[in-house]
Every structure is written in C-alpha cells, then in structure tokens.
Structure prediction request, 950 residues.
Amino acid sequence: MAEAPLLRLENVSKRFKGGRRGAPPVQALDEVSLTLAPGRLLGLVGPDAGGKTTLMRIMAGLVEPDSGTVEVLGGPVATLDRGLVGYMPQSGALYAELSVRQNLELYARLRGVEPRDSPERMDQLYRLTGLGAFRDRPSGKLSGGMRQKLAVACAVVAAPPLILLDEPSVGVDPVSRLEIWQLAQELAGPGRSVVWTTSILEDAERCDEVLLLHDGQVRYAGPPAGLAQRASGKVYFAPLSDAGRRQTLQATLELPGVITANIVGAGLRVVSRTGAAPAGDHWQPVPATAEEGFAATLDDGAVLTPSALAEAFPLRTGGENSAAIAAVGLTRRYGDFTAAQDISFTVAPGEIFGLLGPNGAGKSTTFRMLCGLLAPSSGRGTVAGRDLLTARAEAREAMGYMPQKFSLYGDLTVAANLKFVAGAYGLAGSAASAAIERVVGALGLEPYFATGTGLLPLGIKQRLALGAAVLHTPPVLFLDEPTSGVDPLIRREFWHHINAIAARGTAVLVTTHFMDEAENCDRLLLVNQSEAIAHGTPAELKRHARQGGAAATLEDAFIALIMAQRASAGAAA
Amino acid sequence: MSARDPLLWRRAGAIRAKEWAQVWLDPSTFGLVVLMPLILMFLFGSAVTLDVHGTRTGVVDQDHTRASREFINTLSRNSYFRIEEGPSVAALERGMQTGALRGIVVIPDGFETGLVRLQPLDVQLITDGSQVNTATFLTGHLRGALKEWVEAEAGELDIPVTPVLKILPRYTYNPGLESRYMLVPGAIGIVMAMIGSLLTALIMAREYERGTMEGLLATPISIPALVLSKLIPYYVLGLASTALCVVVAVFGYGLPFHGSVLALFLIASAFLAAVLGQGLLISAGTKNQFVSTQFALLSGFLPSLLLSGFLFEIDSMPTAIQWLTYIVPARYLIPSLQSVFLVGDVWKLFLPNIAILLLFGGFFFLRVTRAITRRIA
Prediction:
C-alpha cells in the first residue's frame, strides 16, 4: 500500500462522565487504533453501547477524544474539511416533514453541490436509491428502508472520499438491507472508503475489513475471515427434526463443552468450547461465521444450568383447543393510513410465536393492540381467554410484558424496582417478597440488589427486565425486540430462559427483525407494509420460499416473500 | 473552517430555505405568529383596563334639600359613578358586603345650610378597603366632583369662594387619560417579547432533539452562518407579527400613530434582534423543547410584563428591582413604542434605546455561537 491512509487513529480513548451524581464514568473507547486505506470498506461491528457511535463521531470531528491521535484524510481531524467527509448519523438527520427532494437538496447545498447546476448527480442519486418516484413525499412517510436510503444519499451527495455511515441498515427489511448495502458499495467505488457500523455480525462478512468493538475495546481487527477463524474447527452442524427443535437446543446449550448453539436453516449449529464435537455421531464440522467467532472470543467458560427462573412457573397444560393468545382480524387505522391490516393468528400454551418484520411494518401496532395499549379499529384479541375490549384489566393481569426499551426506573435500586413491579401486578406482602427473592436468586441478581438500575451493565439490565416481566409467573409473555443489539452470550442466556419458561406451558409472543431470533420460534407471522404476508413454522416458510430456488435460511425466505409482495403490489398499481 | 468560504451563501441559503419550508408546513407557527398576537392584543386592549368606569356607588341623602338633590344629579351624570340611592347607610351596607357597591356617599343633614353659610362641609365616603385601587380612585373622583360642583354652585348663589387659584389639568398625549393608550403599545411589546423568544426557543432545541443537529454540524457550514440563517426567517415573522399588532392597534383600537413607520421598523428590528437572540441562546443551552419553552416564558414573557414599566411604573419600584429592570430588553422598547404611537419620532429617546437593544442582540448572538459547538456528546 503506497497510498497514505484515509483514516489513522492511534490509541484513541474517550471517557464520558456518569449521567447522574455518583454514577461512575463510562469508558466509551479504550485505546482504539485503526487505519483505513483508500477504496476500502470497513465494518465497525459489535453490540450496542460498545463505542461504535462514539468512534464514528470522533472520525467526523463531532466528539473530541480524551487522548490519542486522529488523522482524517492525511491531516489532524481538527482541521478537517467537512466537505470531504460524508457522515450519516444514526438518527439519519432527516427532516420528517420535509419532502425527499427538500431533504436531499438541503444537504446537497450544505455540502456545496447546487442541485440546479448538477442535475446528473441528483438524477444518479434518485436512480441508485430508487427514490425518484417519491421526490415529493415527506421523508417521515417513507418506509424505513427508503428513509435509510435517503439518509445515505444525503450523506454522500457531494461524492466525498470518506463516507461514514452509522447503522444505515438498522431495523429495515432484509431486502432493503441488501439494497442499502449495494448502495454503499456503488457509492464507495474506486478511491472512496466507507466506514459502516452495525450490530449485526453477519454484515461484517461483507466488508473488506472488520473492527469489532465491545465495551469500548477492540476485540478484533482484520479481514472478516479472521474473525470467523476464532471459532474455526469448533463449529458443528446437525440436522434437526421439526418436532422438539427447542428441546434439543435447550439440552445442547446446557452441555458443558458448548459455548453457544443456534437453530439455523434445517439444523442446529454449535460452537464447541474444546473443539470436540458434542456427543452423538450426526455432528458435521462446518465453517464458522463471524458471529460464532465473536461468541468464541467472548467465552468466559460459564456453563448454562437449567433455568431456575422457569421452575417457579406452574406447569400449565391447558386444553388442546384453548388459545393463550388470539388475534382475530386486528386492524388499526390512523386517518387514511392503515398501520395493521386484518392480522389474525393464535398462540397455544407453551408455544413461542414470532411476529417478524422490519421497523414500521405493523408488528409493534399489532403487539400493542394485543397488550391492551392500543384499541383496534376493528377486530378483536384475547389473552388467556380474556377479551381485551371487555376485560382489559383481567387480560393484563395474565400477561408479562418486556418492552423494547429498558423501562424500569433508573434512579431506583433493583430491589425498589422489583417491589414496584410486584405491586403493579397485584403481588403484596409475603407473596411479593417470595417472588422477588425467587427471581433475584434465579437470575443471579443478588450482588446488584441495592444498586441503582441506571448503573447496571447492559447484560444485567436485560436479566432484570426479564425478571420483572415474569415476577407473577404469567401464563402469557410478551417480548418486544428482546435481544436487539446485545452480544451473543447475553442472547444465548436470554433464550435459554425463554425456552424453559415456554416448556412450562407459558405462551410467548415475540416481535423481532432478527432472523436468528425468529429461528427460535415455533411459528412465525411475517409482517411487511402493514400486512401479514406469510404464516407458518420456520421450516414451512423456508420450504415455501425454496420453490423459487435453493433458499435455505429464513432470511432467504423472507426476501422471497417481500419480493413477491412487491411484485403483486406493482402488478396491482 | 476557513474564514472565507466561497460557498457560504449557498449553504446559508439552504438553511434559510429549509426554515421557511418548515415554517410553512408547521401549523403551530401560524398560531404563534398570528393567533397569539391577536388574542394578546384583545386581552390587553379590551379586557385589561386600569380605568374606573361606572363604579357602583350608593348615596344616602340625609339633607333632602335642593342642593343635595342637585349634587346627587351631578354625580349621576358623571360617567365614573353609577349611583344607587338608599334610605340609610344600614340599608346599603349589604351591597357593600356582597361587592355590589364599591362605596357609599353620605350627604349629611345641613348640607345646604352649611354651603350657604360657608361652614365647613363634611360629606362622608365609605369605601371598600379591601379594593385599595378602586377605593383610591373613588375618593379622588368624588373629591373632584364635589369641588367642581361647589364652585359652580357658588357662582350661581353668588357666594364668594375663597380659592382664587385653580388647577386646569391638561393631559398631554393622552387627553382622555385612557389607560388603553398606554396599554396597547405596551401589549405590542409584550407580544413581540413573547413570540420572539418562543419562536427561537423552539428551533434550536428541535434540531437537537430530533438528531438533525448532528447532520448539520457534520456539514461544512460555519456556526455563525448557521445561526444567522436560522434567525432571519424568524426575524421576518416577528416583524410581520408586529405589523399585525400595529394594524390592530390603529384600526381596531383607534390609537393615534404620530411617529413614522421607519422609526417603528428600526425599534422593532432592534428589539427582535435582542429577543430572538435570547430565545436562541435558551434553545441552544437547554437542547430540549419543553425546558426551552418554559424558560422562554419565564425569562422572556414575565420580566417583560412585570419589569418593563408596562404594568408597573419603574420609578415606584424598590431600588434593587429598578436595577434589575435594566437587563429586561422590553424596558427599552415600550417607552419608544408608546412615543411612536402617541407622541411622534423622538429620536433622542429612540436612538439610545435602539443602541442598547442591538448590544443585547450582539451579546446573545456571540453567546449562541459559543454555546453551539461542533461537539455532540
């Protein structure tokens, strides 16, 4: 490499003051170094709160590091010509009420491009993003995928040599994700470099180089293959029968020699701690993925034991034909916009049911109608046999709810939060104390009992949120995007509990846009653009999509289904 | 950031165009710029008045003579009073208790005789001490009415009246002594202070709250250019709002307009520079729309109302509070506005005030460009 690097960071550290009085400072970045040559695509990957955004802002000159050198385009970042860096913040920085054209032209002029003088550049951007037909639509009324494409276009409109994109593909459908990915690559082209952040490790495999950040530290830097290499020779695959998939997963996770296990495609993938295959002769060695490499990197030797959290749940068998959750034609309209159109499904006791779809597809709307947080425009829903319209309070008592955002009181201690939640669910006195003691013991929260919730590490917060949702051992559990942006070990632990709780006869409804979470579900409803586009077990959905080709994963199935929906919408229009 | 950015005007123009588009698409701006001034003008022009008109006053005539009857008739013709006669104080006292009457005038037995014989007269006025202002006004008006009547009567009866010197009051600039003449220009000042600080209090905080500030800061536009470009549309809106208020004042409330439009424009511009800057600083400091509006109301509206001389005369405030009024921009606006309406162009008054307001504006602008840094954290 004769050319000077576009980016050179050396031992960059950044520490943020604690949010509250007495809160310890947060080490956002700890001695991070990286170099990026022209024309390369760097993936900045890792779980949420790992330091990705802080690092991006440092490179964009929006955050000053405490120590270390930052050189962008050959000079110190303080003297950076901002016209040469196309930075897209995580929020997208679009004006929701302004049209696509107004947003794009604003950023074009700010970045020194007069749209009237360079019509061919504007046309090219409209063509690459596919937004040409939506020029006059307010950006707030675009689908999530289109909005992200517009935000990318606004960042790169002046064709800068360095492009910084913070989470451009978060929460969008898999088709849009691929399209945004292609957009970034087309825009990068020869001589231009892109830095792209994502919490999805799968994306890392498409980059030239990967920097894995976890808790502010670089856990890996190099080509993506090298990350997968960390688990090389330790990953095994075994086919799974459709029946008892989760039971097999659960048993495998509890094996001492296993770091993590995931259902993928038609079988189970296992990352072995020792490199030896688990017992049984059906295990085939397979190449590792980046995510598995990350899990192997993080492995702390802990072995999962059967979930004590689930043991408190009474064994609920329920009749064969009694649905724990039923949605019948749930529809929600806002003015002339339909957020959810005629959604119907049932969840049996002991079943894990997934609502899968991109952000803004209608899954949250459906979910909120079933939680009794939103009244349907038409249709009805029942939870544990109680109608959400006529017996809302009783229905709510029967459900545990874990919201997407951590929503316990940050300035109260773990103990006070649990006490409050117990009270809210109608547990009092010794029943409440017993429930709290049980949950705290089962989740290993004793050391944090008197700690303010806001100061807990991410993984502990996740545990606490789950504990709070199941204090009253409800027959129905609602989980909203439960493990988005957490590391593979936290995700493994979380699903281990959920599987065990479901095995006791609790019905679990999960919303997610992650395919690997969806693989954990018994049945799925795919939602896109307010409509249910497919319904069935993961295996059925994969088979359904395989008709068109050799699709093997749920993601392929989803892509095929969205393409079919787009095609029929196009034919209808 | 180079001092000479060749694309500065393009970038600044882009921000201005964006602000206008947002103003156009946001119905709340219309409410703030058109409806709120109209409501405030109505409140201060019509609903709030410091004048006493038709004060319900009881009269007890213990004299029953021609003179006492005539005095009561004189009072009845006076627009300050609405007279209600009663047989005795006891009979009218109930009205005082319920608040139906604000005072009782007792004309003593021997009123006429005393007048003719030039003996000292004692007309008693019972007022409601819990309504101090009304009581004071009532006392003053009754004293005046009595004096005038005695003088007129004396001429008729050919009684020599001792006082030779008479005070002939002439209330310059406000001949009718109508409080509206003072209140309406002040109200315009209050409207300007309020919309000025509210308009800008929202705009920076909104950029921070929605995360769009990060996008703007990552572009090459310089911060002073960004701040100025954001200010200009709101300055124009503030001027439009002021113009609307002036039209309402002149055509709706019949205020005279003795000054020139140029003077009004200069005064209004200088004041808007100060309050828009103040709002902007609040906005950039709090980065939160809710806190920002609360703060704008507390620091913009309330001091303008209480400490500008609009409702309460500054001269009669405690000295410490008087010092405090010097940092309230509205203090420098309202006297000028009152003059421009009621007196004419008094540049000797306007120019120092305009200069001080521009200093305020400059100070706030500098503070804002300091408060907004390239740093997001």
Observations:
- Chain B is about 65% helix and 5% strand.
- Residues 190 and 304 of chain B are 6 Å apart (CA to CA).
